């Protein structure tokens, strides 16, 4: 029996409406910057346009475009990290400022009040606070932290993409977490909430 | 004994990797006697888990969309390119 494979042709005219917002969210989550996200989405659609004859129908149109976008994001991160010196400073003044010279807490972690932290994400106002705290992270720390969590990846893969050693990765993740912890404690968890 | 600043570092690294024995024991001894660092450890783990969930499930929350003017421009660029091909 002969099997004929029919490939549903791609429909570039419908891409923006069909996949635009999906791709944009995908990029935004990983870059947290609207302009760069938009740029990469545009580049993706144009790259898809020139490469569409290579599409064999092995995956959906959306997965195919997403795969292109993923590569663009990785390239963006690589370039971004290479452009800056890959040195991680050995001390972090902000973190040092959290502790006394003797290495004890300057202001001790306070008990969190209010509802179950696990439920916090269901509240839109919490997500706004969380986004605000993420936005306030120094850009490199934010990127590292996002790379680590957004695709639930192992630390080793993140090192690859960001071009940092494992030790530096842990140092940077710690710096990011400390800031997030302070920011969220102060702006959400220590507040009394109805 | 280990200081809180060092303990905080190790508590954080423990979320990313398995600590070497010496550090693991050190941080355990420290948190056994330091309530602040015990609390810190609990809170940090919570925040890390929340952030991880937020970002991995981010597609389902607060969906940002492309502004419509930018969508129009994108659509026009594509149609333009397609026109140039034929």
Uncertain segments of chain A of ≥5 residues (pLDDT<50)? none
Unreliable runs of chain B: none
Rounded to the nearest angstrom, the distance between the terminal CA atoms of chain A is 69 Å
Total helical elements of chain B = 4
Radius of gyration of chain B: 24 Å
Order of helices and strands of chain B: HHHH
E-strand count of chain A: 0
Concise summary:
The complex is a heterodimer of chains A (194) and B (86). By secondary structure, chain A is mostly helical.
Description of the molecule:
The complex is a heterodimer of chains A (194) and B (86). Chain A is an all-alpha fold and 194 residues long. Chain A has 8 helices and no strands. Chain A starts with 14 loop residues before the first helix and ends in a 5-residue tail after the last helix. Classes of the chains: A mainly alpha (194), B mainly alpha (86). At the A-B interface, helix 1, helix 2, helix 5, helix 6 and helix 8 of A face helix 1, helix 3 and helix 4 of B.
SSE topology:
The complex is a heterodimer of chains A (194) and B (86).
Chain A: H1 15-31, H2 34-51, H3 61-83, H4 93-96, H5 124-136, H6 139-150, H7 155-162, H8 166-189
Helix pairs in contact in A: 1-2, 1-3, 2-3, 5-8, 6-8
Chain B: H1 4-13, H2 21-33, H3 35-56, H4 68-85
